[in-house]
Amino acid sequence: MKDYDVIVIGAGPAGYVAAIRCAQHGLKTACIDSGVNSKGNASLGGTCLNVGCIPSKALLESSELLECCQHDTAAHGIKVSNVTLDLATLMQRKQQVVDELTGGVATLFKVNGIVLYTGHGKLLADNQVEVSLNKGNSKQIITATDIILAPGSLPRAIATAPYTDDKIVDSTAALSFDKVPKRLAIIGAGIIGLELGSVWRRMGAEVTLLEAGKDFLPAVDQSIAKQASKILTQQGLSFYFACQVNSTEIKKNKVSIQYTHAGKAKTETFDKVVVAAGRSPNTNNVFAPESGLICDPHGYIEVDTQCRTRLAHVYAIGDAVRGPMLAHKGEEEGVMVADLIAGHFAQVNYETIPFVVYTHPEIAWCGKTEQQLKSENIDYKTGTFPFASNGRARAMGQTQGFIKTLADAKTDRILGVHMLGPHVSELIAQAVIAMEFNSSSEDLAMTMFAHPSLCEVLHESALDVFGKAIHKGKAKKS
Ligand code: FAD
Ligand code: NAI
Fold first, then answer.
1. 171 CB under 6 A from ligand 1?
2. Is the shortest distance between the CB of 190 and ligand 2 below 6 Å?
3. Which of 186, 187, 191 to mutate to test the pocket of ligand 2 (most atoms within 8 A of CB)?
4. Is the pTM of this model over 0.85?
5. DSSP, residue by residue, 348-378
6. How far is CA 127 from CA 2, 57, 139, 263, 332, in A?
7. pLDDT of residue 476
8. Residue 94: nearest ligand to its CA?
9. Which distant-in-sequence residues (6+ apart) come within 8 Å of 15 by Cβ?
């Protein structure tokens, strides 16, 4: 007789969602999570709620408000003077948002009858799990019919910029600086680099991004990436692409970075350096050798399309397995695995994962980019529409960017939707739903959208696939 039907290791978005769905199915569920807050108390929600999605969005929101008060209200005839930043209060608010949400997950565990172990879990042989409790240093073995591994990921360190106490730091520390650095370098111009770079620039830092790759956001549709790069540069972010960081040195309370760019060796000094060079799966010490589990050469737990590992009744989900490291991808895997364990059919559609970069304007997309369609020799049609021609965007004074719809040249099925503009993190859901239902661009074009609204830009981009956008000067010939 096993102790539980299901044990979940890790209570990030993948693990806690899996645990809740298991409990909803009536399965006796336990979850082991090692995450604690600064007071040493259990803090559920993993990277996302504690040091990822949520605190970063709280900071993005506050810093955006600051910039708006400083620069944008005058055009509305609203005079605001003496705008000052109280960083301590801003950080307290961020922490309050985090505490409310992590506390919310704890409440959900209670109401769903999920047994929580605050400590480290390790898969042993025969579906046994060793739990080392945070408090009291005690160890115990618990068993379950099915086990779900959701240990998440950790910031990736780089040899040429090793972390120091408070000068060369990871994204976690960059969410909690107690003063605005005058000069901030970020190694890596990926999603974290752009979001946290935007936060600290808005608060007054001079931000330089040192990026190894030669292109700005290479995975993003390049027409969107090109315009976004221009806008973010105009906002004041400095980018060095194809840049190699050779070494770093702490000198007189500052960090000196030696790097090579455009064939020239350079040295620059910064107050803080954030390493945002990707994340690695956190799979060290999650399973014992006798469990029989193994990782791929990059440290990911190998799984099939339904997140089954090579061991019967052991699943792995979220950042610790293949695919993009996104909270919503992990959540959907959690739901899928719980449904499979409960004996239902379940799958995740990896083709329609939405991606969002929360800069201002925001960047969002789902499906294939033009560069992917070209490399796969797929014949496609394009429709685009700018926010500058949209009434709501004009009324809001947020006219930068555009939406692009890509559809199959023969079937008209939507293959990808790419957005740069205000609130596109919300608008992308409409494209995801359309693609999930295999819609054609004509389906979108024939759908009614409220006026005035930003989503009319999506409508017009679909109309433009046929050269029939109403508010576009030069309509294509049909
Ligand atoms: P995690 O959230 O990493 O959770 C894993 C949990 O398991 C942790 O609580 C950990 O303590 C625990 N754990 C690990 N090993 C063990 C063990 N052996 N025993 C017990 N417990 C264990 N994604 C988005 O989709 N949108 C965003 O806006 C976004 N913003 C981000 C911003 C930042 C700064 C960062 C760093 C990440 C961001 N992400 C975002 C990524 C997102 O946070 C991750 O994709 C997501 O948290 C992964 O969920 P997970 O459940 O797989 O793992
Ligand atoms: P990333 O993979 O997005 O970007 C890392 C960047 O660092 C890449 O451009 C890479 O070329 C560069 N790089 C790597 N090594 C380097 C080096 N030595 N020197 C200079 N540049 C180097 O990873 P990031 O930004 O760290 O984010 C980690 C994960 O978190 C991402 O996979 C992302 O999915 C997730 N995330 C998601 C967010 C969202 O959905 N809005 C927000 C923040 C993070």
1. yes
2. yes
3. 191
4. yes
5. --GGG--EEE-SSSEEEEEE--HHHHHHTT-
6. 9, 38, 16, 55, 24
7. 59
8. 1
9. 8, 9, 31, 33, 46, 148, 150, 152, 317, 318, 334
227-238: pLDDT as tens digits: 999 999 999 999
Query: Could you read off the pLDDT of 317-343 as tens digits, one per residue?
Result: 999 999 999 999 999 999 999 999 999
What distance in Å separates the CA atoms of residue 60 and residue 56, rounded to the nearest whole number?
6
Compute the distance from residue 268 Cα to the ligand 2 centre, in Å: 22
Distance from Cα 357 to the centre of ligand 2, integer Å: 11
Beta-ladder partners of 414: 407
pLDDT per residue as tens digits for the range 90-112? 999 999 999 999 999 999 999 99
From 3.50.30.60, 3.30.390.30, 2.40.30.110, 3.40.50.150, which CATH number describes the 352-464 domain?
A: 3.30.390.30
| Domain range 168-277, CATH class | alpha beta
Catalytic residues: 451
Distance between CA atoms of 57 and 320, rounded to whole angstroms? 23
CATH fold for domain 4-155+280-348: FAD/NAD(P)-binding domain (3.50.50)
- Ligand 2 pocket, residue 48 CB under 6 Å: no
Ligand 2 atom with minimal separation from the 213 CA: 11
DSSP codes joined into one string, 302-344: P--TT-B-SSTTEEE-GGGSSS---HHHHHHHHHHHHHHHTT-
Shortest-distance ligand to the CA of residue 132: 1
Peptide bond into 13 cis (omega under 30): no
Give tens-digit pLDDT for 447-462. Answer: 999 999 999 999 999 9
CA-277 nearest atom, ligand 2: 7
Average pLDDT over residues 237-253: 96
- Residue of minimum CA distance from atom 53 in ligand 1: 152
92 vs 114: CA distance, rounded Å: 30
- How far apart CA 346 and CA 436 sit, in angstroms, is 15
| Mean pLDDT (whole number) for 124-143 | 94
Q: Which amino acid is at 75?
A: A
Residue 474 is predicted with a pLDDT of: 66
Spacing, Cα 238 to ligand 2 middle (Å): 17
Which atom of ligand 2 lies closest to the CA of 244?
19
